[in-house]
Specification:
about 170 residues; alpha+beta; two-stranded antiparallel ribbon; 4 helices; about 55% helix; transmembrane helix
Length: about 170
Amino acid sequence: MEPTNKGATFYHYKLLKKTVIHPYALRIYAALPILFVVLDSVFVSPAGLFYFVIAVPVILWIQYVVSRSVLLIAGYPIAKRWRNSFKLPWPGFMPDQYISCGLFRKVQLHNFWIGLSFTALFIIWSPPAFTLSLAFMHLWLLAPRFYALVRTGWRRQDDMLKFNPADVSCYSQ
C-alpha cells in the first residue's frame, strides 16, 4: 500500500518546555478577585462590588478589541484560532491552537499597555473603586499569560505555544 501524503501538510513539533499550573495555585488565583472585592468594599467604597461587576465586562471588551486589532494588523488569521474563554487559568480572548511566541507576546504587551492607559484615563472621571477594579481585573487577566511567557521563554520568536486547561507547552518547529 502506497502512503498518501500528496497535498497533506504534517507538522512535527518538538516539545521544549511544559509548564503545569498547580491546582493549589489555581485556587489562589481564583480567590484573588473575591479578596479584592472584600478589601475594596471595606477600605475604598461600599459600592466596590457594583464597580467590580461593571469593570469585568469593560476590561474583557478592551482586551478583546486590542487583541483582535493587533492580530488583524499583524495579518494573522483569527477565525477559528482564537476564542473567548471563561475557564481558569486562561480567561479572556485566548488562542485555541498553536501560536507563535513572538505574536502572543506582542498581543499581550499591547493588551498590557493599552489597558493600563485606558484605566489611567478613568482616574480623573470615575470613582476610585471603579478605577481600582479596572486595574485589578486587567492585571488579574494578564497575570497567567505573562507567567506562561516568562516560564516558557520570553525571548523565543519562532517557537509555538499551546495553551491547555492545566498547562502551557512550548514547541519548536
